[in-house]
Amino acid sequence: MDRQILARLNDMRRKRQAAILVTDLDGGPDRLVVEGDRLDGALADAAASAFRSGKSSAVEIDGQSLFLNVHLPPPRIVVIGAVHISQVLARMAALAGFDITIIDPRTAFATPERFEGIDLIADWPADALKERPLDGYMALVAVTHDPKIDDEPIVQALRTGCFYVGALGSRKTHAGRMERLRREGLTDADLARIHAPIGLAIGAASPAEIAVAILAEIIASLRGRDVSVPKGDWP
Predict the structure, then answer these.
(1) Where are the domains of the chain?
(2) pLDDT tens digits for 86-137?
(3) Alpha carbon 91 to chain centroid, angstroms
(4) Which CATH superfamily is 76-224 part of?
(5) CB-count burial class (<10 Å; 0-12, 13-18, 19+) for 99
(6) Relative orientation angle of helices 207-224 and 84-95, to the nearest 10 degrees
(7) pTM, whole model, 2 decimals?
């Protein structure tokens, strides 16, 4: 591999950006494609499919034999609220291959006993996210029902291009949330990206069922995201 390409690929890994190393199996030069690059033709379709699936594969494009080696940041779910839903979601997310972080300033909820082995931060989200900022390969799940805790991370998630932003609450609760977020300067296009009520509409009732609905919606968002838009540059 060309040293300049290797250096760029390593830099992208550090920055949690997605890329595909395109290798010409007939001996031509390697090429690095970054998620959000403007591509044309069959390569654009093949790269988009690879970015969404995360799977490396060999393809035939315009008479060339290419191998697409996909390098994606590990997807992470950041949950705001150490509630019953979060306890189940944390275990399920790990089984599905997601890293997960729980953030809640309420120390009565955010205890190691309730979240054994889970990355748990007992602090205000605004402070926690300064140290560990959100990015395009993170999903934000807000489940506290408390605007003082939920609203700021939702704003950050929308502004940084998280691939999924979901918030628990009734339609009435969400209507109030929308008004508050508009006052923070978010547009209707921004707010349309919030999944609320959170989770797929499967009639979930218990915390475990709601966690299933949330995780399924997160996976659908990850695999169906618009890979033509560089993360952080959402319209």
Answers:
(1) 3-71, 76-224
(2) 999 999 999 999 999 999 999 999 999 999 999 999 999 999 999 999 999 9
(3) 17
(4) NAD(P)-binding Rossmann-like Domain (3.40.50.720)
(5) middle
(6) 50
(7) 0.89
